[in-house]
Amino acid sequence: MAGNASLNAAGRAKKDEFYTQLTDIEKELRHYREHFAGKTVLCNCDDPFESDFFKYFVLSFNQLGLKKLMATCYTGSPIAFSIFDILDDNLEDDTTLRTPYKAVVTSVRDATGDGSVTMDDVAELFRSHENELTELEGDGDFRSRECLDLMDEADIVVTNPPFSLFREYVATLMGHGKKFIIIGNVNCITYKEIFPLLMHNEMWIGPSIHSGDRAFNVPDDYPLDAAGCGIDENGRRYIRVKGVRWFTNLDIKKRHEEMILVQRYDPERYPRYVNYDAIEVSKTADIPCDYAGNMGVPITFLDKYDPEQFEILGKSSDLGMSMAEIATPGSYQAGGMRFYLNESYKGYKYHRLYERIVIRNLHPEEPRS
Predict the structure, then answer these.
(1) Residue 248: which of 304, 195, 179 has the closest Cα?
(2) Which of 29, 194, 260, 363 sits a CA distance of 20 to 30 A from 168?
(3) Mean pLDDT along residues 83-111
(4) At residue 76, what are phi and psi to the nearest 5 degrees?
(5) Range(s) for CATH 3.40.50 in the chain?
(6) 8 Å CB contact between 198 and 189
(7) Pick the CATH number of 5-254 from 3.40.720, 2.30.140, 2.60.40, 3.40.50
(8) Residue among 178, 141, 140, 177 nearest 157 (CA)
């Protein structure tokens, strides 16, 4: 396969080169420990020696009972250069700075000291004949043949894929039948390629991030020209990104915790849409316990979704009736299909809602008489 221009182009690649912080990785992955014993894990979208995913699995290799850890990068790394240098490889020029490489780990000595992974620790890993650090033949694109071969070898893929290629990355995982734990933007929920997977329980939201923003480390030359950027106490640059979520297809106990519903249906409180037969529930916490019909809820409902409690029927951009069949031109907003509420004293234009997920309670309580 030819080199991936969108990954290798400097500006685009830098925007996608976010490194998930170790504390966020630890908070999420603690829910999946039972899945890793005897398994091969692949981290295929982060520099193994920049990525805290790699560090997490090195530190936890024996505790999790991993069979093998593999990691690849798609651009060269000065850190990789330093490791090759430490290992006394014969470097005739600086090609290693630009050459993607893979790391394969099958043996890790139990960590000592403060539990961190230093450059010397990484170098020590690859002094062992049981572990391997080699250059890739191609550009390290996750869609290249050699990287797909590594994916086929892996049992579980865990990484932070490029946000701009999230659709294609998930399609690749699904096409190869992989189990995965990845991180992405919450708006991915609405993508036409992603939503059906969530709707049909082929993928779901991880348990550790349900609100707020998260800090991601970025390369040293990444511009810090936006709010929330900074440099931490270790001198690493970071940015804060709003609306991120973990996505996975590994089953966990948290996914089957029933949502406690305390509200009851009142037609005055729950208006109906004018272009779809369902009621509006503007907050997940306000889902009525005794309503058996269709309900529209925010996309963040998926943070609490229990597939034994609710059925997902679709989303507003797919289910809604065109407002052109209901209202006069100019009385509603352009910009794609959405649900509208009937507030005629102001006109429909002011009551176009954000994307809604349509759900049905599988076990509603009996309404009060």
Answers:
(1) 179
(2) 29
(3) 64
(4) -65, 160
(5) 5-254
(6) yes
(7) 3.40.50
(8) 178
Q: Between helices 166-175 and 145-153, what is the axis angle to 10°?
A: 60
Position 330 pLDDT exceeds 50: yes
Q: Give the position of tokens 């805290």.
A: 52
Q: Which two three-digit tokens encode residue 296?
A: 């529209």
Q: Which residues of 341-364 are buried (b: 16+ CB within 10 A; e: fewer)?
A: beeeeeebeebbbebbbbbebeee
What is the residue-averaged pLDDT of the chain?
84
Please check whether residue 236 is in contact with residue 224, taking contact to mean a CB–CB distance below 8 angstroms: no
- Give the number of residues written for the chain: 369
Q: Which residues pair with 213 in a beta bridge?
A: 242
- Cα–Cα distance for residue pair 337/203, rounded to 1 Å: 25
DSSP lists the bridge partners of residue 279 as 272, 295
Q: What is the pLDDT of residue 113?
A: 55
Distance, CA of 30 to CA of 124 (rounded, Å):
27
Count of beta carbons in the 10 Å neighbourhood of residue 243: 17
Q: CA nearest 165: which of 368, 9, 369?
A: 9
Distance CA 108, CA 128 (A): 9
What residues does 216 pair with on adjacent strands?
20, 239
Helices 22-29 and 52-64, axial angle in degrees (round to 10): 40
